[in-house]
What we know:
- There is one protein chain.
- It is globular, with a radius of gyration of 26 Å.
- Strand 7 (129-130) and strand 8 form a beta hairpin.
- The strands form ten sheets. Strands 13, 14, 15, 20, 25, 26, 34, 37 and 38 form a nine-stranded mixed sheet that branches. It has a seven-stranded mixed sheet with strand order 12-11-4-1-2-3-31. A four-stranded parallel sheet has the order 6-5-9-10, with helices on both faces.
- The protein has 17 helices and 38 strands.
- It is an alpha+beta fold.
- The two termini are 50 Å apart.
Amino acid sequence: MGMGLVRVGVDVGGTFTDVVLALPDGRIHVNKTTTTPADPGEGVVAGIQAVLAAAALDPGAVAEVVHGTTVASNTILQKAGARTGLLTTRGFRDVLEIGRIRTPGMFDLAWRKPEPLVPRRWRLEVAERIAADGEVVVPLEEDAVRAAATRFLAERVEAVAICFLNSYANPAHEQRAAALLRAAAPALLVTASCEVLPEIKEYERTSTAVVNAYILPAMRGYLSRLQDRLRMIGVVAPVQVMASNGGMIGLDAARDRPVFAVGSGPAGGVAGAARLGPPLGAPDLIVFDMGGTTAKAAIIEGGQPAIVTEYEFRDGISTPSRFIKGAGTMLKVPAIDIAEVGSGGGSLARIDAGGLLLVGPESAGGDPGPACYGRGNARPTVTDANMVLGYLNPGALAGGSLPVDPELSRRAVAEHVARPLGLGVEEAAHGIRQVANIAMARAIRAVTVERGKDPRDMALMAFGGGGPLHAVDVARLLGIRRVLVSPVSGVFSAAGMLAAEAVHEFVQPLLLPLAAVSPGLVGAATDRLAGQGRAALAVEGYDAAATVLRFAADLRYLGQSSQLTIPLPDGAFGAEALRRAYEATYGATFGYVAAGEAVELVNLRLSAMGMAASRIDFAALALDPRALAGAAGERLVSFARGAPPVPTRLLPRAALASGPVVGPAILESYDTTIVVPPGCTAQAAAAGCVAIRMEPADA
């Protein structure tokens, strides 16, 4: 096999940067480094150097780096994007602000509309018009485009989105305007909506193109610096970026279309979990990923992550809910359906003016970190609450590499929570943990109950540094009976990236009543999509044998404004098969079907997938023994509020190899701590997972 297939997965989180290096024989090396927010590439390179040293490898041995980055999402959250302009059809500059005329809460009088990413003075109009059938009604006024270029430069605009009406039907005007802008103002970064999202619906298309332009400079600068840094340390391998849909895209695609990577960070873990489910006999999983800054939930059905074709990106809890619209920035790109809450290990607990205990979304990050790190933060975090209750090693975390002081945790919880509420320190710590657990259960409800799925029918797969610490308690809140803990849990998002495929998404708008759909017409459209898909993958080195094409159709009842995406497993494009599949999905989603109503085919979609030659095989993982090491012994742990702490066995995670462990027990490894409460039994499961069985008595 040679050393040529050494692959590195990197996940940059809000607190830690995780790096996993996988050797062709299944051995892996892992590293956690504190994230360097000013320039995340610094932490990435430090982590890669550390795993190369641990594996005694030359940087030239690395064949591929797969990277999940929060640069795109943080740029939007922190409103730190480019000065962005918009060029649009005369009369349509306010589409971006009008949006969908929806408010997230019907009776909230204090609600303020989120500020558009492009202020009105930088939204310029030109005369042009293309009809819905693609005919040119008003030719493009080229002088107006040149004048706009001058105006953008005078205003020091850095990036421009071009979005003309009906450009999905005929992109000629957008393409010409883009060429004119690039010629007149080479310094401008230009995004034409037809390059990002050639789909019907002008608001969604405008918003997506604007987000792409807004994050272009940050993402370009970051990826270019990262590539240079990697070359400086001798890593010349191609860099792939995780896309929001759980696939990988090449560096060039990510530099030009960063909007596809806004959900990049958490996607790797979900892609990895999708691989783990089937060998465990659990093709339907709830994915629960708790890191230092946020906790995330997603679902996997039949071994595939649930995908949405659009989502709203906003501050705080980002639930891609069908029911709440208008509260954030609209992105119409395929993304894993992920709900996120601001409760991670570093989330700060405080008492508000009304005496309520709040946890998060503000986080102590990795530096200064929780109070027990002793780096100058004296406020209590979820990690400090876990420390007070005895869940965490009181000497050091991260396999002994991170010294901690539990006394500082007690002091922080006592001063900021226990005393103001008149509680004991342990009681206050249980309160902090409970508030965090309920917030995390809410994220899981958002992707299950609110989607018509019963969480009790599914297993909960926990990972992230904090996931296995909280998994059983969160599962109990939702009535879930089976908890699984992934291998290398603390760095699983990075490992999951090495299980991902290259995926490129394409769309072909059709807009026809199903009755008018002919096989020839659909055949021509799918052939065109297939050609685009194969070409995109060929650029990244995937030949025809390594290419898989998956088609889907967007359908709606005639007269509706939104559609459902129906996968077409065997390419069955017959009108009757499409209608049956649509009505089944519609019924499952909304609880009723409008039988006999005319159905309309809106778009055909293609996911073109390149199968990586050396995907990580979780079943064959051979962990560095240090990663499984942990203390053996006993300590007092408080499992329930008001009950005395109980003596609890401490074991290294590797101890499960010799048989099941009955709780109360705590399993330690380099990257995470697994809590097995009283009445639960942990045992080794397939693919390096740990399965925790919970007794039915608490149901």
